[in-house]
Write a structure and sequence with these properties.
Largest interface: A-B, 62 and 53 residues
Structural class of chain B: alpha/beta
Number of domains of chain B: 2
Radius of gyration of chain B: 21 Å
Order of helices and strands of chain B: HEHEHEHEEHEHEHEHEHEHHHEEEEE
Helix content of chain A: 55-70%
CATH class of the largest domain in chain A: Mainly Alpha
Distance between the termini of chain A: 57 Å
CATH topology of the largest domain in chain B: Rossmann fold
Strand content of chain B: 15-25%
Strand order of the largest sheet of chain A: 1-4
CATH architecture of the largest domain in chain A: Orthogonal Bundle
Number of domains of chain A: 2
Helix content of chain B: 25-40%
CATH topology of the largest domain in chain A: ABC transporter involved in vitamin B12 uptake, BtuC
Mean pLDDT of chain B: 86
Number of strands of chain A: 6
Oligomer: heterodimer
Number of strands of chain B: 15
Strand content of chain A: 5-15%
Chain lengths: ~400, ~425
């Protein structure tokens, strides 16, 4: 089932219905990381009406913390013996990342934002941008970035997949695949035997060349038959590391919702978010609530950074700009969902992930980032307060 | 090599692939570097520097800080080794050679400043740099001042097309794309290949374009083309599309920084076909980010420590004696070669000044170097050198790049032709 069409005058690449379920799942898994970072933006905005542009850098600091902990466990770039990974390494890494990120968030609030809290809002906004740049460029002085390191991919113990079959592959094609496999095995073993006689198998003799050609032809036919069989079914493949990331994300979101909705501190947070001055008059320690909010948002960013760098997409290089792109995308997610609204941030994040995936599915992988911003503009035009933002008129 | 990581990439450090066609009138220079061919290379503007008080200053621009530090360090070591060898072999009678090293900070602006400093220091010629973006800045300064520049690893195709003071010791991008296509089609017997390009890097775009052109010309099919951007945190969308297209291999023209994670993710989702790439893969870090998945994949490179040829073995022996461990990157050998070419040209000079050095460089012929035989005469600054296809093997004392096939450009068509490994043939 392959559809062809036109989209805004651009020829759509072949739309392949069979990969659609996989791409939607990819998008949801990607989106959960955006959602986790977006929560930090949205909570701080809810309380302080401040867009904390340094949030992406808090994420970056969390990634560096994970890197240093992984080095402490022996996964250094110069390790001669590959160390064995343990699940508790990951627990130490995530706790350390959350702690350092939380601390960074509190310090940023205490020294950069609090002194300006009674100043016009633009002053805080400029400070936030300044803080972000200070960490990006200042961090280069003391964080290893020359050349940028990466967390060893082998620290991830979850390298398996979960496979869900939606439509079974056509069993009539099995016979063809099996026979192609048999031909391939015969041809390969003939060539392998000849390889031992060859000085260099990449410069084969005439006899070797013939056997190599036959083996390569059989390999191609097998890949063809195998692809035909696999593509006749529809299935969804989910790497275990990503499932864990998503599950942890949702657990953390659940804990957050509980904190906000059912605890005394959460009620105080909601009161401060509703009206800063009245809350202070009612005896709420506004400073401690703001600090608490920054701790919550920043620890979530720390957790996201650790999972992103080890479980989700291991091996990415870490530099002081590591938080830039995820930060921007999560910010967009928060705005789409209605900045200041916690469930909105989650939905916005997931939506962002799915949109990016679907644009790639349509054959425009180079337009993935642009598409997210197009959706942002559309949402802001249609619903200026975001999908879940309150539409109540602001009292002036 | 055109490595650029993180911030540097925003500053367009990467390679630009331009049209490789050179046409126009004969080179008005008297250097004789274009004998028999036509060129757009303009003669350099200034008069340059000359030896003072019996001291010839040769400048070296290298990334001593910043994200290209590993390449910078190796190119310095290589250049210093070449100078030591040259002096041990007698040097130039009556003159002392002074190697003046300046830091480019891995960014083009830094490279420009370093070149300006070297020119005011009285450098007769400049060696450097590794990335094309940095080299362009050095070349422009040298062109205005009249100082010749010998690039170490700048592969941007059009680098040497317009200024007659620019030379290099590496192959251009237009060649390595064709090498990998020829290797895929002829040596691996592949007919259906998917292509994955880093849309943010002109280097990657150019390389993919050259690969696709040659692969199609040979009779192969490109079943899918996907793009990602440097700094992306996930590649699942692209890999899902590629997997559905059922390719026999994937050509991935980006830098090792993303290639490692991409290959690891592909293997995890069951896409275990071979991956192929260019010299942007040249870093041991591809092993920590790619894990076991990357083993057995192939890429194109200038040099490898695991080359058995006597020249390379001799070079390695000297290097180990001086620095105690094998060179970490290809830039050690290319740095050595760039310096060797410069010093050899200097030896052929009569007046020991920049103009004379430029003409001598343009006349370098059949010089046996570590990364192959280099002829600059008649080649407009870019040698028609052989390229190696290397296989990624587990890390050993000599690195992880096992040479499998060597390709030499056909002198007439420029298309890659298979030549024996370790052969010193060709120009």
């Amino acid at each position: 089932m392959v559809l062809h069409g036109l989209f805004l005058g651009l020829p759509l690449a072949a739309l392949d219905i069979r990969t659609l379920p996989q791409q939607i799942v990819n998008g949801l898994l990607n989106g959960s990381i955006y959602a986790l970072i977006a929560l930090g933006y949205t909570m701080v905005y809810g309380i302080l009406k401040l867009i904390n542009f340094a949030h992406g850098e808090v994420f970056m600091l969390g990634a560096y913390t994970s890197l240093f902990v992984s080095w402490a466990f022996g996964f250094t770039p110069n390790a001669t013996v590959e160390p064995q990974t343990q699940v508790w390494y990951l627990l130490v890494m995530i706790v350390a990342s959350m702690t350092v990120s939380g601390l960074a968030g509190v310090l940023i609030e205490r020294f950069a934002y609090r002194p300006l809290r009674n100043q016009p809002r633009i002053a805080s906004l400029i400070t936030a941008i300044g803080m972000s740049m200070l960490l990006q460029y200042g961090g280069q002085l003391f964080l290893p970035n020359s050349p940028p390191p990466n967390i060893d991919a082998m620290i991830n113990p979850y390298r398996g997949n979960v496979n869900i079959t939606l439509v079974k592959s056509n069993e009539n094609l099995v016979a063809a695949m099996k026979s192609a496999e048999q031909t391939k095995l015969t041809a390969d073993s003939a060539w392998d035997a000849q390889k031992k006689l060859e000085e260099n198998s990449f410069y084969p003799s005439a006899k070797g060349q013939a056997l190599q050609d036959a083996a390569q032809k059989a390999d191609r036919d097998y890949i063809e038959a195998q692809g035909k069989y696999n593509n006749s079914g529809v299935s969804i493949l989910m790497p275990v590391g990503r499932i864990i990331t998503t599950v942890v994300t949702f657990i953390l979101m659940g804990v957050l919702s509980y904190l906000i909705l059912f605890t005394k501190r959460g009620r105080a947070m909601r009161a401060v978010s509703h009206d800063f001055d009245s809350a202070a008059l009612m005896g709420i320690n506004v400073n401690s609530i703001v600090t608490f909010t920054f701790i919550l948002g920043s620890t979530l960013a720390g957790a996201a950074a650790m999972m992103d760098a080890t479980l989700y997409q291991p091996g990415l290089q870490i530099n002081t700009f590591f938080g830039l792109l995820p930060g921007v995308k999560a910010f967009v997610a928060a705005v789409i969902g209605g900045i200041g609204n916690v469930p909105g941030a989650v939905v916005g994040g997931l939506l962002m992930g799915v949109i990016e995936s679907l644009v790639g599915w349509a054959g425009y992988t180079s337009w993935q980032d642009a598409a997210a911003f197009v959706v942002l503009i559309v949402v802001l035009l249609v619903r200026p307060n975001g999908l879940f933002g309150s539409t109540a008129a602001e009292k002036v | 090599m055109v490595a650029s990581i993180g911030l540097a990439s925003f500053m367009a450090t990467g390679c630009k692939k331009g049209s490789s066609a050179a046409s126009g009138g004969a080179n008005p220079s008297s250097g004789g570097d274009t004998s028999g061919s036509t060129s757009m290379r303009k003669p350099m503007e200034g008069k340059g520097n000359s030896a003072k008080n019996g001291v010839i200053t040769i400048g070296l621009v290298a990334s001593e800080t910043g994200d290209q530090k590993p390449w910078g360090e190796d190119s310095i070591k290589g250049a210093e080794l070449a100078l030591a060898d040259f002096n041990a072999a007698g040097g130039i009678k009556g003159y002392k050679i002074n190697l003046d090293i300046q830091d480019s900070q891995s960014i083009p602006a830094g490279a420009g400043n370093a070149a300006a400093k070297l020119i005011s220091d009285g450098a007769v010629g400049i060696v450097g740099e590794v990335s094309s973006g940095n080299t362009v800045e050095i070349a422009n300064r040298g062109f205005k001042a009249g100082v010749p520049v010998v690039a170490i690893g700048a592969t941007m195709t059009k680098l040497t097309e317009t200024q007659n003071n620019v030379f290099r010791v590496c192959y251009p991008d237009s060649f390595q794309g064709g090498v990998m296509a020829t290797f895929a089609y002829q040596a691996l017997g592949l007919r259906k290949v998917g292509v994955l390009t880093d849309n943010k890097l002109p280097y990657s775009q150019g390389l993919s374009r050259d690969f696709i052109r040659t692969f199609k010309k040979l009779g192969g099919t490109i079943v899918d083309q996907e793009k990602y951007e440097q700094g992306a945190s996930t590649f699942s969308t692209q890999l899902t599309q590629l997997k559905a297209a059922n390719p026999e291999a994937i050509f991935c023209s980006g830098y090792f920084t993303e290639v490692g994670p991409i290959v690891a993710a592909a293997h995890q989702m069951g896409l275990t076909v071979p991956f192929l790439g260019g010299d942007g893969w040249d870093s041991p870090k591809i092993l920590t980010s790619g894990g076991k998945a990357i083993l057995g994949d192939y890429f194109c490179n200038h040099y490898t420590n695991m080359d058995n040829s006597p020249v390379v073995q001799q070079f390695l022996k000297e290097w180990m004696q001086k620095y105690k461990s094998a060179p970490g990157t290809t830039m050690g050998a290319l740095g050595y070669d760039a310096m060797k070419v410069t010093l050899t040209a200097l030896k052929n000079c009569k007046t020991m000044d920049s103009v004379d050095l430029r003409n001598a460089l343009a006349n370098i012929q059949d010089l046996q170097c570590v990364s192959g035989t280099i002829t600059l005469k008649g080649n407009n600054g870019t040698p028609n050198k052989r390229a190696l296809v290397v296989k990624i093997v587990p890390m050993g004392p000599l690195g992880f790049q096992q040479p499998v096939v060597a390709y030499q450009p056909d002198p007439k068509t420029g298309l890659p032709v298979k030549v024996p490994l370790g052969s010193a043939a060709g120009s």
